[in-house]
């Protein structure tokens, strides 16, 4: 019997909490920990991933019957790399500050396991509309996780909120949102300086990123489990959508193939 397809709205909403790519599926962890030292960095990376994820899902879904099975992974990478290049050129041209902040992690979106994983596990097997909604939902979930981590780490580690927001919004013109460029808690609450309260800079370091990441994972998993989702567990390579084409297979599979 064919599996019953989910309603389209569920394809969109699943990536926000229930199957959040960062906090539930634990994908894209390297970029998440590296660039979430501020809200603006997280938002910029998240928006770039949303554009690449939605566009690549749509194109791969359109070509899913034309791409030979043996070369599907290289074909997917070419499609993804094309959109990453376009996004990178736009960011370099219009938001150079963000390009410098994200550094190597912007072009590395090409090999982001969230994007390649959705191409292999979903877009290559489903309709264009469903694939677009899946990409949009997963992208929003990824962005929400990055923004939340960036906001918390920036607040505790630097004492600011959304600092440098105008540099990101400059692509839409000057003085967007009335020129709002973040909040400095020491300017809003001068008493903090009198009390000798200083930001905990540890949160801007890798150790602070891991701590924030763990706390958010625990909260997200508790919410998802409360909605009837299974408890998040670590899996071996065999559960990865790329396992069929990857050389890093479990030893049991290798023995079966050699027998």
Let me know the largest β-sheet. Answer: 2 strands, antiparallel
Q: Structural class of the helix and strand makeup?
A: mainly alpha
> What value does the average pLDDT take?
83
Could you give the order of strands across the largest sheet? 1-2
Spans of at least 5 consecutive residues whose pLDDT stays below 50 are none
Kindly report how far apart the N and C termini lie.
Answer: 32 Å
Estimate what percentage of residues fall within beta strands.
under 5%
DSSP helical segment count: 12
* Helix and strand element order: HHHHHHHEHEHHHH
- The coarse silhouette is globular
Helix content: 55-70%
**Strand count:** 2
Rg estimate, integer Å? 20 Å
- Total separate domains: 1
Please characterize this protein's 3D structure.
The chain has 259 residues and is mainly α. The chain has one domain. It is 58% helix and 2% strand. It has helices at 8-13, 29-35, 39-62, 72-94, 96-102, 113-123, 128-158, 165-169, 185-188, 191-194, 206-226, 251-258; strands spanning 160-161, 183-184. A two-stranded antiparallel ribbon has the order 1-2. Helix 3 packs parallel to helix 6 and helix 4 (72-94) crosses helix 6 (113-123). It is globular. The mean pLDDT is 83.
Question: In brief, what are we looking at here?
Answer:
The protein has 259 residues and is an all-alpha fold. The chain contains twelve helices and two strands.
List keywords for this structure.
259 residues, mainly alpha, two-stranded antiparallel sheet, globular
Topology of helices and strands:
Layout lengths: L7 H6 L15 H7 L3 H24 L9 H23 L1 H7 L10 H11 L4 H31 L1 E2 L3 H5 L13 E2 H4 L2 H4 L11 H21 L24 H8 L1
Antiparallel strand pairs: 1-2
Helix pairs in contact: 3-4, 3-6, 3-7, 4-5, 4-6, 6-7, 7-11
